[in-house]
Amino acid sequence: MYYSSSKPIKKKPNTGISEFNPTQSQIQQQSCNYKITPTYDLPFILTQAINDENQQHQIEQDLTGSLSSRDGTCFIIYSNELFIWTIDKPQYCDRIELPIKQNITRQHIVVYKNKSSSERFSVFLCSPLTGYIRFWGNSSKPNVSQDLPLENPGNNNNFKIFITECQPFGVIVGNSLGSIYLVSVKNNNNLISKKINKSQGMLSYLYLSRQSPVISVFSSPINQQQLQNNNNSHHHHHHHSTTLSSNNFSTIPSRFIYILTEGSLLKYEIENGTERIILDFPIQKEITKLFSNFPKFHQMNIDTIIDQNKDEIQIVNFILYETSASQNLVKYYILQIEIQDDQVLRIKRLDSFSANKKLGGGVTSIEPILQTNSLKYYLTWFDNIYYYSNGGGGGGGVNGIISGSISFQSDIAFSGFYKNQFYFFSEQGINKLDIQPFGSGQLASSELHIQDTIKNIESDIYMDTDNTTSVTGTPATTASATISTTPTIVSPILFDIPKDENLIGSKRNNVLKLMNSFSLKQHTRVDQFVKICKGYNDFDQVIQQVSLWIIDQQPNSKFWAEDGKLLHMFVKEISVQLNQQLEDKKKRHNFLLTCIKDTDLDKLLTTQTKEILKKNEIKIKCAIELRNYQNQQEQSRKSLNYTTTTTTIMKGASSSSSIFSQLIESLVAERNPNWTNIGMNVFELFYSNVSGIDQILINITSKLQELLQNQPQQQQLLTSANKAQILLENCELFYLISSSFPVEYLNSPIIQSTSISIHNLFPKVIQSILNFIQLEFPNQVAGLLGGGGIGGLGNGHSSSSSTILFKKDLGIPNVDKQLYDHLYKLTEKYLYSLKINQFEQFNQFKTKLIEPFVECFKFQEAITLANQFDDFFTLINVYCYQQHQLQNSTITIATTITPADNNKLLIDCLNKFEKIGQLSKVYEYMLERDLKSELLQLPSDFNDSLFRFLQSNSELSWIHSIRMKNWTNVSNTLYQKSISNQHHQQQQQQQQHQVMTLKEKQKLLSLSKVSLMVSTATSSSSSSSSLELQLQPSQQIQLDVINQNLSLIKSQKFFLPDLKNVLSVSEVVQLILQREIGDEDPMVNFVSCIEIISESPLLLKKEEVKELLKLILELSIVNETVFFEKSISDIQLSYSLKETKFYNLISHPHFPKEIALVLLSPIIEDFYKTHINSNKFSSLDDKRQFEISVARLLELSKLEIGQKQI
Question: Residue ranges of region Disordered (predicted)?
Fold first, then answer.
């Protein structure tokens, strides 16, 4: 509703009388309608400070402050304190204590939104006493600031200093000494300053000259050209600069600052790293032309409009005043300077909008404040708002003047624009003023265009929140508007301080007092209590007590009672206020955590205490979840008109009570048997004790165990239905509560000093479900599963009619599905808990926990769990079960699985565990499950891994290679199998394993040789037309080994036909040397052994060859008689020695001469030593002949070996 404002009436006297003096043209056009809307509240801590100050001093102090049209940031200076907030978020207000005795005003303060949080601020303050800059990087930490000295005024009592924002580059500071500074925040929030005064020039008086004193500084609004440049910079390049705010102004390339000095009006362009003066206008000369008496400066304001040519024009408005001692009057004027393209277009005096003030008490601290917006002028002064528009459009005509004033019952602190709306501030709150036709028509077309563009840049700042609460004003016939509504105050969180009970209670109360002071932003008191708390040695215990006190706080019984009823009379009713109580506890406990964090007290806490605080926070959340569940349950029961006709199992519970209600009453009765005399109903008592909210899980588990005890076999169907209902609801509750706790907290004790935890209760609940299915539904569930029991494949035959009847009478649709759904959710949760809290047990029991789903043919659930928890045992088991179903036609379970689906399950399993490096373990388990055929039929992607795995299983390895036509692998596998059996033959004999026969080895070697030839022939045919085999070096060695083994087998069969087991080369040689030859020449054996040795170089080590040849030579020389013959000539002796077996062996072409040369002397020397002292010599001549014979043999042998080497 709009009110007339043609005759302003002031309701409250002030020191000094102000009046508005319109011209005759104004009088004709001044009548218009207005609307005042209480829109926002003042912050509670500001309202509280005002009330406290008024009560203490019984006088009203002036409010002064500012509203940023850019982002709605407000600040108010009151009683030497600075209050900062965003206009639409009074609940987030910060409080900073200002330096005392410095007469800080709004021209000394600049506030930005903090870059890290839109609800926190950064503050600049320039000292009018010492000239320094103080900076608070985060207003929520008022004790953390830094000072930057600029210029010390000394004893200059007329020193003045001014500051204005220059976002994103910092702030501009000017003083009466003529200095102009750009103060910026750089790395790590360090302040730096840069003097940006214009150069004095060559014609100045050098150092004797001084800068003109600064009178005012003001930031130009973000104009259209800057926004266009900003948009272009997004298309062409990114321009980075230091920013103090969380908005996107950091991309604006430049800002314009107006600085008024005693000599001229300067316009600066501030860029990132550069500053330049783009306008220097001698304004003082123009003022002397327009005013007979040189007026004094009061305020500067800048507005931006767009003319008919769509060019931007900046209008610089000055409030000037002159004092008339004869008339006892102060008169205020508005001077306008229009600037376009950094050139002054015109300057004019706005006589049609001036105001007078009687000098009743001298000039007070409240002076006129001018706000402009697209040729709309608002002058806020004492308890009046004067408004004026010339050519603003609307009801007064395009060229008409619209003006008037509105008076209020109390003074107006200050005013400003936000989102193109005019707001004014007073002790009663923040109100929006809408004047017709100011708020309609084409008034603000240019401003709206600019604001819309800014909104696109600052979408996170400009929020479309506008309360439309109607205002209580005077009737249409009354010219004055009276603001009489009381705004709704958003109260902060405050705690009642209980009486001190003991020392720990006293310490707890100090923490509560700390939180109250923190809530009211009483920083001095906060610092005091923080210091006290830091002195507590048992601070952990104190904080634990505070947390417990908050979450277990009981409500006032009178508060919860309604209509005078006694609470114990409606035990089963649910109080709506319980939701509010729990939400309040959540809010207060969160506030405790915030308080100790922001005061750095959390650094004093141990990890155990932090976990207790976190767990208490979780318990509040759990209580809220339970409360919501109970409300939904009660609403559902009422809507369905649900009643239970069965007798209840739980003792002392009403038949109409839900199972959850019965559990609550049971737990409350356990804690306090006389609870009905407390004056609170059972639910209020339960939810008040938040710290013990999880104890109900113990009751749930106990009830489930009682449920499965043997019951009298009466009304079996009814009892089963009742049990099913209890089981399902208890399991649902258990899962709901356990889900409120993060997995890592499930293993912490429910009751201190006990081992009972949610984690330990899971197996009992899971087992209860399994036992219930097995004991209570043997027929029904077996009928569903098609077997004789849970997970059985027997011949149980349950009629489908009994199952349908059971479901109908029970009233629970799909009861089997519900049971398995609960079993699945609880099993999944428990597995997660095991994985986090008991990893070794997790690996040990995960297959066992999933096994019931496999046995009951819930394969999809089993597969899902197995994939979640990397359980390949279950996946292979499911494959086997499903394969069994596909191959066994007698199984009657309905299934849609196909062989392709089951094969995909196996392949997916192998792919999954190949990625995590456990593929060999899967292969191994497949062998355990006798899935040899499946292994051999795997796709070629698994060839390499399967070949490596089957190296230890040669029986399958070479078959697998044949199937894949990998003849090289076939040859290698058979070859390795043949030689490995040979190497481990003795060990196998000791273990009584089957020993490979000579025939089997010959077969393996022959197949290996053939495979090698096929492999070589295949590769040769693909690369060359020649049939000649191209063997690789390794293949050639393998072929040679195979041939030598085959040759050895052939020799063994010839010389040792009775031995069927595989022998080594050494064994064959030794046995040949030992065999009885009868009348045959022993030389046959010796030569055969040498040939076997020479044909087996790859089967013998060098030392083995040496030892075998040594044995042969030693045996050959033993029975020679030539050494003992008498009266023999040298020629005959030589002939005789050359006919010896020893000499013939040495000279044999297959006898290695290098080994012969090594063995020759030692063997003959040993032979000589053995016989020289024997009794075979009858005379010295015989002994002499023996020595000659031995020496001659050595000589002849060496000669023979030497000739052979040559």
Answer: 226-246
The terminus-to-terminus CA distance of the chain in angstroms comes to 132
Instruction: Classify the C-alpha dihedral 404-410-415-417 as positive or negative.
Output: negative
3-state secondary structure of 82: strand
Helix axes 778-785, 815-837, angle to 10 degrees: 90
Cβ of 1094: how many Cβ atoms within 10 Å? 15
pLDDT value for 2: 52
pLDDT digits (tens, 9 = 90+) for 61-72: 677 899 998 889
Separation CA 642–CA 807 (nearest Å)? 17
CA distance 704 to 650: 11
pLDDT single digits (tens) 1011-1045: 778 777 766 555 544 445 677 888 888 888 889 88
Question: CA of 925: how far to CAs of 847, 908, 940, 951, in Å?
Answer: 13, 16, 20, 16
Cβ atoms of residues 1004 and 989 within 8 Å: no
pLDDT score, position 35: 86
Q: Where do runs of H (alpha helix) occur along 599-695?
A: 607-640, 659-671, 682-688
pLDDT in tens, 289-330: 888 878 888 888 888 888 777 788 899 998 888 877 666 677
Please give the average per-residue pLDDT across 75-89, as a whole number. 91
Distance of CA 558 to the CA centre of its chain: 45
Instruction: Name the phi and psi angles at 442, rounded to 5.
Output: -100, 20
The C-alpha atoms of residue 1112 and residue 1098 are separated, in whole angstroms, by 20
Q: Report yes or no: 371 and 66 within 8 Å, Cβ to Cβ.
A: no
Task: From 573, 575, 687, 577, select the one nearest 638 (Cα to Cα).
Answer: 573
* Band (119; pLDDT cuts 50, 70, 90): confident
Is-contact 941 907, C-beta < 8 A? Answer: no
Question: Domain map of the chain by residue range?
Answer: 1-38+292-489, 62-281, 543-688, 692-837, 1082-1205
Residue 16 exposure: Cα atoms within 13 Å on the Cβ side: 24
User: What SS3 state is found at 259?
Assistant: strand
The backbone torsions φ and ψ at residue 992, rounded to the nearest 5 degrees and listed phi first, read 60, 35
CA 1127/CA 1141 separation, integer angstroms: 22
What is the sign of the dihedral through the CA atoms of 826, 827, 828 and 829? positive
User: How many other β-carbons are positioned within 10 Å of the β-carbon of residue 565?
Assistant: 10
Q: How buried is residue 188: exposed, middle or buried, by Cβ count under 10 Å (0-12/13-18/19+)? A: exposed
Dump the DSSP string for 1039-1103.
HHHHHHHHHHHHHHHHH-TT--B---HHHHHHHHHHS--TTS-HHHHHHHHHHHHHT-TTTS-HH
- Rounded Cα distance between 1206 and 614, Å, is 94
How far is it, in rounded angstroms, from Cα 1123 to Cα 138? 115
Q: Which of 649-663, 818-832, 1119-1133 has the lowest mean pLDDT?
A: 649-663
List 76's β-bridge partners, or say none: 65, 83
Q: Residue 678 corresponds to which tokens in the numbers above? A: 């407390």
Contact 567, 560 (CB under 8 A): yes
* pLDDT for res 785: 35
Instruction: Give the span between the Cα atoms of 814 and 717, in whole angstroms.
Output: 16
Q: How far is CA 1111 from CA 845, 1066, 1090, 1159, in A?
A: 63, 11, 11, 10
Q: Which helix (H) or strand (E) holds 302?
A: strand 296-306
* CA dihedral over 44, 49, 54, 59, signed as positive or negative: negative
Residue 1010 structure tokens: 């053939």
Structural class in CATH, domain 62-281: mainly beta
Q: Is the bond into 1057 cis (omega within 30 degrees of 0)? A: no
- 580's enclosing H/E stretch is helix 577-598
Number of H helices, E strands in the chain: 38, 30
Q: What is the pLDDT of residue 491?
A: 65
Name the nearest CA neighbour of 576 among 683, 686, 666. 683
d(CA 468, CA 465): 10
